[in-house]
UniProtKB/TrEMBL annotation:
EC id: 1.11.1.24
Catalytic reaction list: a hydroperoxide + [thioredoxin]-dithiol = an alcohol + [thioredoxin]-disulfide + H2O
Family note: Belongs to the peroxiredoxin family. BCP/PrxQ subfamily.
Taxonomy of the source species: Bacteria, Pseudomonadati, Pseudomonadota, Alphaproteobacteria, Sphingomonadales
Stated role: Thiol-specific peroxidase that catalyzes the reduction of hydrogen peroxide and organic hydroperoxides to water and alcohols, respectively. Plays a role in cell protection against oxidative stress by detoxifying peroxides and as sensor of hydrogen peroxide-mediated signaling events.
Gene3D superfamilies linked: Glutaredoxin
UniProt domain Thioredoxin: residue ranges: 5-157
Pfam family, one: AhpC-TSA
Any GO molecular function: thioredoxin-dependent peroxiredoxin activity
UniProt name for this protein: thioredoxin-dependent peroxiredoxin
Length: 157
């Protein structure tokens, strides 16, 4: 059995930093559906596409009563620049601290590329129900069509 939260479990209530200097945590969305999408790094091709896709559908998520929150380990100031540069509508938060939410979820992990190992974020999306419990998990996400698939699942929840 995994020690990390899975479908049906409550999402760990660990605070994340927002670009405006505040904090946000999963319990702030209690009573609302939440899509929490974790991505590796601001301003990289796949992550930029993913953020633009969720931003393009932000109005549809809002109409469906679903909050969006994109999360990476990038610092809040970098998120602010990323949002401004690409006109992103989906809010972002920083999980920069060790022992943060991505650590608790088991998605900040050792990766390897070209024979080098490093710590990195596994692109993962969580759909959380109004009860604060994980309703669905997409792991090792492929960006193309992902935001639309998550929207459909959120509407069906």
């Amino acid at each position: 059995m995994s020690k990390f939260p899975a479908t049906g479990d409550a999402l760990p209530d660990i605070a994340l930093e927002t670009p405006d200097g505040g904090t946000v945590k999963p319990s702030d969305f209690k009573g609302k559906k939440l899509v929490l999408f974790f991505y590796p790094k601001d301003d990289t091709p796949g992550c930029t596409t993913e953020n633009k896709d969720f931003s393009a559908l932000a109005g549809d998520f809002a109409k469906a009563g679903v909050a969006l929150l994109g999360v990476s380990k990038d610092p809040p100031a970098k998120h602010a620049k990323f949002i401004a540069k690409h006109g992103l509508a989906a809010p972002l938060a920083s999980d920069a601290l060790e022992g943060g939410l991505s650590d608790a979820l088991g998605i900040w992990t050792e990766k390897s590329m070209y024979g080098k190992t490093y710590m990195g974020m596994v692109r993962t999306t969580y759909l959380v129900g109004t009860d604060g419990k994980i309703a669905r998990v997409w792991d090792k996400v492929k960006v193309m069509g992902h935001a639309e698939e998550v929207l459909a699942a959120a509407k069906a929840l």
